[in-house]
Amino acid sequence: MQLEPNKYVKELTQEKYKYGFTTDVHTEIIEKGLNEDVVRLISEKKGEPEWLLDFRLKAYRYWQTLEMPTWAHLTIPEIDYQAISYYADPTKKKDGPKSLDEVDPELLKTFNKLGIPLEEQLALSGMAVDAVMDSVSVKTTFKETLMEKGIIFCSISEAVREHPDLVKKYLGSVVGYRDNFFAALNSAVFSDGSFVYIPKGVRCPMELSTYFRINAANTGQFERTLIVADDDSYVSYLEGCTAPMRDENQLHAAIVEIVVMDRAEVKYSTVQNWYPGDAEGKGGVYNFVTKRGNCKGRDSKLSWTQVETGSAITWKYPSCILSGDNSTAEFYSVAVTNNFQQADTGTKMIHLGKNTRSTIVSKGISAGRSQNSYRGLVRVSEKADNARNYSQCDSLLLGSHCGAHTFPYMDIHNETAVVEHEATTSKISEDQLFYCNQRGIPTEDAVGLIVNGYAKEVLNKLPMEFAVEAQKLLSVSLEGSVG
Amino acid sequence: MLEIKDLHASINGKEILKGINLTVKTGEVHAIMGPNGSGKSTLSNVLVGHPAYEVTKGSVVFDGKDLLAMSPEDRSHEGLFLSFQYPVEIPGVSMVNFMRSAVNEQRKYKGLPALTASEFLKLMRQKREVVELDSKLANRSVNEGFSGGEKKRNEIFQMAMLEPKLSILDETDSGLDIDALRIVAEGVNKLKTPNTSCIVITHYQRLLDYIKPDIVHVLYKGKIVKTAGPELALELEEKGYDWIKKELGE
């Protein structure tokens, strides 16, 4: 179908990636390349204790024995790990020491522009933010307010200094450094990310959120986030991310670990909007992420919700280990790929405890020449009596040059398990679009309407403010995809 | 209201319309009849700008404006409505969201502010009554799981919402039982004003028992071969299309 080049489409085109600007700020970047000295240097810059340096070095040595995994349905150009800088600090001023509370106005401006005001009086009501640029946390808001309830919310570097026992106890307890290639790399060189601890019986009164921004060129970002929800606690956590438009690819290799104790509940939502590269497939972020939660306690609950619209390549499987009896896990995902983007994403639900339940709802949307894969594993161990899983994987295709793939794996070792899997593939037809046109709805808006309708089930799981943003994002990401 | 001159159109390189001339004045109801494959649906699709059809010759002026130069959505905004022969299903998109977008796009085009949620829902309740569409249908996805009759009622409901100047009803009677036919036809009649016009495309007389045409045309092999008053429809019902073919010397 031919599109009329009208004003609206032009506006959309220009708006397409509105986070693509760069911040001109003095950034201390260590030399490119990776070796033991670099690992030691990062640890030293963060003033880390000996045990953490040991952890990093073990991970680094193990990583050296590994090769990049090739099982994903992705075409990944060779990455030169020696051509990347592993630490970039935009908070270091050239001229001498500065107070801890003083944040460079340029950085404040950047986050304001991204819609994340870091002055508490301007902040969104009911949301505390940890803002991370490149390798360093710039500022965490409402820290003191939260502390009054015993809630710890700070950067992981600060947590290592201030709460070493908690970090030592849980770091690497869900995703070990031997887990996979990118987990080993992250464990060796990780920089900032957030640390959250919700004490027993506390319901976190505000949404906690971390905003990740890559700014410096030729650097990798190695986010590390650790969330611990103690007995009978509750927290809703949001993660957002953007990066400038650059011609070179940038690497983001993260680990997120979540521990959920007895009767506790954690909701983790992501709106991933890393720069996806241009319409010809040049540039964009490589997003290789290991996210996993352990429903350790009885009656615990973990819910992952993700809206993935960005990145040139996404390799990401937010997973749940259901160890506690009666624990519940959910995975709700919308993954959009357009132009030359590639995504291989899904989840793993590992049922270990009795009466455990998991739900998977995955909605893939492919357009342009992109490739979009769902990959999911449901495992029920011998002892997991009465485990239940329901999986639903839907794919929506726009145009005929894109691909949608589904790779569901099931590994069931207990006869009492009930596992259901449903999958559909559909296409937005020209007749549907024309029907909308005839009623006065332009094609771009019609696509937005249909895509948002299709993804409704997942978007409804997001906190209100995010859901509205995510809806707009879906429409904008697919701009120009019907042609 | 509508002036079609020497309209030629083709699909996939095959010419279907071979010089249509038709003038519809404000307030008139025209019926276009004809055997299968004569180009009736092509004519309605070309008028609303379906991209599969190519206009190779001729002109269409709608309300003083060059219709063929407009995008399909602008033709809608200008007041042209097609009740589809086969309304398409759009899963996941609720009728409420769909109509709200449609109504507000039209308002934007006319420089009017968007309706608030409560204004819109009130409008929807009023218009639903025109075709006795129950509230459950209005909350479902567009046409999804609707019966044939419900789909056609839904088309007329949308017509009520958008208040077009010129409505084209493309075989709106096909697949309807007698009760559904009555409801749909009564809906169309209720929406009729001295300022609106209507083109009814149909095979059969029975719809015209309810929606009385002022003028009846016979379309055959891409051309209008006969134009007369309402009595022509009755004659066709009685004799079939063969006598027209004979008259044309076939």
Features:
heterodimer; A: 483 residues; alpha/beta; eleven-stranded mixed β-sheet; ten-stranded mixed β-sheet; 11 helices; 23 strands; 23% helix; 35% strand; globular; B: 250 residues; Rossmann fold; four-stranded antiparallel β-sheet; 12 strands; 39% helix
Report on the structure:
The complex is a heterodimer of chains A (483) and B (250). Chain A is built from 11 helices and 23 strands. By secondary structure, chain A is α/β, with parallel strands linked by helices. Chain A has one domain (11-428). In chain A, strands 5, 6, 8, 9, 11, 13, 15, 16, 18, 20 and 22 form an 11-stranded mixed beta sheet that branches. In chain A, strands 4-3-7-10-12-14-17-19-21-23 form a 10-stranded mixed beta sheet, with helices on one face. In chain A, helix 3 runs antiparallel to helix 8 (181-189). Chain A is globular. Chain B is an alpha/beta fold. Chain B is built from 10 helices and 12 strands. The mean pLDDT of chain B is 91. Chains A and B meet through helix 9 and helix 10 of A and helix 2, strand 7, helix 3 and strand 8 of B.
Concise overview:
The complex is a heterodimer of chains A (483) and B (250). Chain A is an alpha/beta fold and 483 residues long. Chain A is built from 11 helices and 23 strands.
Multimer state: heterodimer
CATH class of chain B reads: Alpha Beta
User: Which runs of chain B of at least 5 residues are low in confidence (pLDDT < 50)?
Assistant: none
Q: What's the total number of strands of chain B?
A: 12
The portion of residues assigned to helices of chain B is 25-40%
The Cα radius of gyration of chain B reads 18 Å
- Helical segment count of chain B: 10
Terminal CA distance of chain A reads: 6 Å
Largest sheet of chain A: 11 strands, mixed
Q: What number of domains of chain A?
A: 1
Mean pLDDT of chain A: 86
